[in-house]
Design brief:
Blueprint (H helix, E strand, L loop, with lengths): L2 E3 L6 E3 L1 E3 L11 H13 L4 E2 L11 H10 L8 E6 L14 H15 L4 E6 L8 H14 L2 E7 L3 H14 L6 E3 L13 H8 L2 E4 L30 H4 L5 H17 L3 H9 L5 E6 L4 H7 L9 H11 L1
Helix pairs in contact: 1-2, 1-10, 5-6, 8-11
Length: 317
C-alpha cells in the first residue's frame, strides 16, 4: 500500500480507503462485510470511512465496522464518521447544531466501539445553523479528544472558503479533509473545490471513484441490468441510474479499450486516474466481496503517462 498526507495535516492515509456507504449494514451480509474489512486491513488499507446514517437504520454500518476492527490496534487505522442527515423525527435529529453534532458523535463512538474517531465530517452544509456554532462544536470535540480532525462532505466552494476564513478569524482548528464525489464522469470539484482546498491545506477523500460501479464496465448499452448489481438493488438503484445513459456507456466502452491496452482492469484504470492528482489523499471504494478489494488495491501501482491521460481526456470530452 502507498500512503499520502491528509492535506497539510500530519496524518497519513492509504491511497485506497474502504467505505461503508450502500454496503455494510444494508445490502451486504455481515459475515461478507467483515471479510471485506479484514481483507482491506491485511492489504495495508488503514483508512475506513463510515457515517451515522449508513445502513438500514442509523448507526447500523458503524456497528459492523466497529465489530470488524475491534481486534486491531486502535492507532493502526484511521476511522471516520459523519453527521447531518436526519436520524429521527424530532426537530433536533438533524443538521449541524451543537446539540445534534455532540449527540451523534457520542452515539457513533458507542456503535464503533472506540473512544475517538480520527476524522469527523459535516455530511452536508447546514444553512439553518450559524456556521460559528458548528465550527466551535467541532473545535470543542477536538479539544475533548473525541475527534482528532474535522472535515466536510459535498460543501460548495464558497462555503468552504467561508468556513476556512471563519476558523482563521476565531483561532479555531482547521479543516483537514473534504469528501466530495469525484470520478471520470463527475469532475465538478476540479474547477473550484480543489483550488480552494489546496490553498487551505485541505485534502480530498473522494467517494464514488468508480461511478457506482459503472466505470468497471459491468453495465452494457442495450442490455438488461445484471442481477446482484447496485442498479438492480431497489435501495440503491437511484444512485446508479444517472450514469446509465447510452452516451455515458459508450464512453465507458472506450475506456475499457484503454484499460485492455494497458493490461489492467477498468476499475484499476478509473482509480489510477483519480489518484493522478496530488490533491487527492484517498479514493474511497465500496466492496461487497473481498476479491473486489484485492483487485482495486492494485491501482496504486498503475502510473498513467501523458499520452494515456490525453487519450482519456479525448474520450471524456
Amino acid at each position: 500500500m502507498k500512503y499520502r498526507r491528509l492535506g497539510k495535516s500530519g496524518v497519513k492515509v492509504s491511497e485506497i480507503a474502504l467505505g461503508s456507504w450502500l454496503t455494510y449494514g444494508t445490502v451486504t451480509e455481515q459475515e461478507q462485510a467483515v471479510a471485506c474489512i479484514k481483507t482491506a486491513y491485511d492489504e495495508g488499507i488503514n483508512h475506513f470511512d463510515c457515517a451515522n446514517i449508513y445502513g438500514s437504520v442509523p448507526h447500523a454500518a458503524e456497528e459492523v465496522l466497529g465489530s470488524a476492527l475491534k481486534d486491531y490496534r486502535r492507532d493502526s487505522f484511521v476511522l471516520t464518521t459523519k453527521a447531518f442527515w436526519p436520524t429521527g423525527h424530532g426537530p433536533n435529529d438533524r443538521g449541524l447544531s451543537r446539540k445534534h453534532i455532540f449527540s451523534q458523535v457520542e452515539q457513533s463512538l458507542r456503535s464503533l466501539k472506540v473512544e475517538y474517531v480520527d476524522l469527523f465530517y459535516c455530511h452536508r452544509f447546514d444553512d439553518s445553523t450559524d456556521m460559528e456554532e458548528t465550527l466551535r462544536a467541532l473545535d470543542d470535540l477536538v479539544a475533548q479528544g473525541k475527534i482528532l480532525y474535522a472535515g466536510f462532505s459535498e460543501w460548495p466552494a464558497h462555503r468552504i472558503a467561508q468556513g476556512v476564513a471563519l476558523q482563521r478569524q476565531l483561532g479555531l482548528r482547521k479543516f483537514a479533509a473534504s469528501q466530495p464525489v469525484y470520478n471520470m464522469l463527475t469532475r465538478y470539484i476540479e474547477d473550484a473545490v480543489i483550488p480552494v482546498c489546496d490553498e487551505a491545506g485541505i485534502g480530498q477523500v473522494v467517494f464514488s471513484p468508480l461511478a457506482q460501479g459503472v466505470l468497471t464496465g459491468k453495465y452494457k448499452r442495450g442490455a438488461a441490468v445484471p442481477a446482484g448489481t447496485r442498479a438492480a438493488t431497489k435501495e440503491v438503484s437511484q444512485f446508479v441510474e444517472r450514469y446509465l445513459s447510452d452516451p455515458i456507456l459508450t464512453k465507458v466502452e472506450q475506456l475499457q479499450g484503454v484499460a485492455r491496452e494497458l493490461g489492467i482492469s477498468p476499475a484499476q484504470l478509473a482509480l489510477a486516474w483519480v489518484l493522478r492528482l496530488p490533491s487527492i489523499s484517498s479514493a474511497l471504494i465500496g466492496a461487497s466481496r473481498p476479491e473486489q478489494v484485492l483487485e482495486n488495491v492494485k491501482a496504486i501501482d498503475v502510473s498513467l503517462d501523458a499520452a494515456t491521460l490525453a487519450k482519456i481526456d479525448a474520450i471524456l470530452a
